Amino acid sequence: MEKEKSEWREWTKALGIALILVIVIRYFLFAPIVVDGLSMTPTLHNGDRMIVSKFGTPDRFDIVVFHAPERKDYIKRVIGLPGDKIEYKDDTLYINGKAYEEPYLKDSKVALQEGLLTDDFTLDEIIDQETVPDGEIFVMGDNRRYSKDSRHIGTVPLEEVVGITSVVVWPIKDMGMVK
Question: Is residue 19 part of a domain?
Answer without folding.
Answer: no
